[in-house]
Design goal:
The complex is a heterodimer. Helix content of chain A is about 70%, strand content about 0%. By secondary structure, chain A is an all-alpha fold. Chain B is an alpha/beta fold. In chain B, helix 3 packs across helix 4 and helix 4 (about 130-145) packs across helix 5. The chains are: A mainly alpha, B alpha/beta. Chains A and B meet through helix 1, helix 4, helix 6 and helix 10 of A and strand 1, strand 2, helix 1, strand 4 and helix 2 of B.
């Protein structure tokens, strides 16, 4: 049977319920609601995950009892405040970093991904919408960590919270971009996030969440400057601590670098994600993992 | 008379070749195929509003690939597919808002969510207004007979109910085109019959163009609709079942004899006479014989004239559709090559089996079932 479609003109829908092209907001709401229901289905997992995330601060609190005087000089003399900011910021950024990739992997494994992709949502909106719940949880986690730090005796400058909020927002944008870049590779590898593995190792070593970047050898410190975590953590310390120690980073420099990073990495991440999706579509990789 | 109805689905000589992943990618993930696989080879058909077209074919025939091209999950290597006039590759977002898709796998449902939450989720992704979502969720659940299960989570549903909720999801935004990939694959025959009746009614009522695939040939026969036979990516037949029977079917006669010895003798006579080269089967006292076109029962009886006294009954048998299709497909030797999607489905089946086995072991050990996310 031979068919020629070139003469067929696109037809508009003439019936059906009231609708518009799905907005970012409606897509965001869909994923937030879905993730919320999933999360509250497992209250014990949620409670233990939160508890586990607080443990490093408790450990650091006791290590801080040992490190005092000259030992604490590189961190400004107040190790608890230093590490509260370091671990709190890292926890906040963690959700943005791994959220999208994690949910994408889960959707691959459960077989949900294709049903998301056949909806008329622009494919570049999906990473943002799918990442939001993890991002909110990460921020919640980081705030809980910082509150625990304050309860244990950390001394933060509360007058600088607005600037801190700006730094966190920029940090979240930058790490989301890295998360999307990594998820783009996940679209092709189907099971691992090699970029995040490398980045996670680098961030834990180089960004200085539990020690000062000044303690790193100079050549490693150069790598530290390439990671957004470094700017958020050390910019936050400059804002919230009286004496941030021997590695001081000005708030302005941190904001500038993070802004530049977000402006460059975000569109690249979204573009690469779309390209990966197109390639996976062409190769027939979307249906499995 | 000129037919002015514009097709809702138009597949225009599309081809699809799955290639092995390029060398640079194999460092990231092993390739699932070693040689290029032709999944579709220049297929063309149309589906009009209000029409149900059933795609039938063995595994690897290209059914799912055709569907995936139409919903934008993969792209054709050549040719063009349109839905309501929109190009399925280049205008994918427009196409996706016009198609209701029901995948063959109920894992695509969000298991922890209730039926109504599943539908709300997709309503939001479809861009429905909040009030429209609530109205459509209620209406669609009633339509598929799940109004009473609106607040049940998917985990609590039977396979038949899950198939219905998948159909509800496909219908939620009242699309003009439905694409149903083995909609009855996981349900029992009674539930399958009810589901197909429901689909038939909805298609007629809403003037929807529906494309569905099924392995259950009795269902295709019951649907009494247009059928496309796919084989190794090519269309072997496109038309209604009766025309196919008229064109391809051959008369089949079943004779019962007084004794098994008489049946065996008669079979030999037929095999060396009018049924030479055709199938003659003996089962005890029964001989079943597929005859060449145009052969009547009278010719058979004339051939068996010396044995007329031994014949107890003579019946003309309608051959089952599966037998007819097996004969058509039998002309192509060997199994069809598997596509990456076939391979992935096979892996998923194996994983599910392993999961079930694991659960079985857990149940034995733990004494009570554990829920899975």
């Amino acid at each position: 049977m031979t068919t020629t479609t070139s003469s067929i003109e696109p037809r508009r829908r003439t019936r059906g319920p009231a609708r518009a092209r799905p907005s970012i907001w409606s897509t965001l709401r869909a994923f937030l609601r879905m993730e919320f229901i999933e999360e509250v289905s497992y209250p014990m997992t949620f409670a233990f995950t939160m508890l586990r995330s607080l443990m490093p601060l408790l450990l650091s609190f006791f290590i801080g009892q040992l490190v005092s005087g000259a030992g604490a000089r590189p961190v400004g003399g107040d190790y608890l405040t230093f590490v509260t900011i370091g671990l709190g910021v890292t926890a906040m950024l963690q959700g943005a970093l791994v959220g999208f990739g994690g949910l994408l992997q889960q959707a691959f494994m459960r077989g949900n991904l294709e049903t998301y992709l056949v909806e008329p949502v622009p494919w570049t909106v999906l990473p943002l919408a799918m990442n939001t719940w993890a991002l909110i949880l990460g921020v919640f986690n980081g705030v809980a960590l910082m509150i625990l730090g304050i309860v244990l005796g950390a001394n933060l400058d509360y007058g600088q919270m607005l600037g801190f909020g700006l730094l966190i927002a920029l940090g979240l944008a930058a790490t989301t971009a890295i998360g999307i870049l990594s998820a783009s590779v996940l679209m092709l590898t189907l099971k691992s996030q090699p970029i995040l593995v490398v980045y996670g190792l680098a961030a834990s070593l180089l960004a200085g969440s539990v020690f000062s970047v000044s303690q790193l050898p100079l050549w490693l410190r150069l790598f530290a400057y390439m990671i957004p975590h470094t700017y958020v953590i050390n910019g936050a310390r400059s804002l919230l601590m009286d004496n941030p120690g021997s590695f001081e980073m000005s708030f302005g420099a941190a904001v500038l670098v993070l802004s530049l990073f977000s402006v460059i990495a975000f569109p690249i991440g979204l573009w690469l994600f779309r390209r990966s999706l197109e390639f996976a579509r062409k190769m027939g990789l979307l249906s499995g993992y | 008379m000129t037919n002015t109805v514009e097709p809702s689905i138009a597949v225009d000589h599309i081809g699809k070749i799955y290639y092995p992943t390029p060398g640079w990618m194999r460092a990231l993930v092993a390739t699932q195929i070693r040689e290029p696989v032709v999944a579709l080879d220049d297929i063309a058909f149309t589906v009009n509003p209000g029409e149900i077209v059933a795609i039938v074919g063995p595994n690897g025939a290209g059914k799912t690939t055709t569907f995936r091209i139409l919903v934008g999950l993969t792209t054709p290597t050549s040719g063009r597919a349109t839905v309501m006039g929109y190009d399925a590759t280049r205008q994918s977002a427009s196409v996706r808002s016009l198609v209701g898709w029901m995948p063959g796998d109920d894992r695509s449902l969000l298991m922890r969510l209730t039926c109504e939450e599943n539908l709300r989720f997709h309503g939001r992704l479809q861009g429905l207004k909040p009030k429209a979502i609530e109205r459509q969720v209620k209406r669609t659940l009633e339509l598929v007979g799940l109004g009473h299960a609106a607040r049940k989570s998917i985990f609590a549903l039977s396979a038949g109910m899950r198939a219905r909720i998948q159909l509800a999801r496909a219908l939620l935004h009242e699309p003009p085109v439905l694409i149903l990939d083995e909609p009855t694959g996981a349900v029992d025959p009674v539930a399958a019959h009810q589901l197909l009746n429901l689909i038939t009614d909805i298609v007629a009522e809403r003037d929807i163009a529906a494309l569905l695939s099924s392995h259950r040939l009795e269902e295709i026969e019951a649907l009494q609709t247009r059928m496309i036979l796919l084989d190794r990516g090519s269309i072997r037949y496109d038309g209604d079942l009766q025309t196919m029977r008229n064109r391809l079917d051959r008369p089949c006669v079943e004779l019962t004899f007084a004794t098994a010895a008489a049946a065996a003798t008669a079979a030999k006579m037929l095999d060396s006479g009018i049924a030479a080269g055709s199938a003659v089967n003996v089962d005890g006292v029964t001989v079943r014989c597929i005859l060449p076109h145009g052969t009547t029962q009278g010719v058979v009886l004339a051939q068996l004239e010396p044995m007329l006294a031994d014949i107890v009954t003579v019946d003309e048998v309608k051959r089952p559709l599966r037998e007819l299709l097996a004969e058509i497909y039998g002309a192509t030797a060997g199994p069809a090559p598997s596509t990456p999607e076939d391979e992935q489905r096979r892996q998923r089946r194996q994983e599910r089996r392993r999961e079930r086995e694991g659960e079985g072991r857990n149940l034995q050990g733990a004494g009570r079932p554990r829920s899975r996310r």
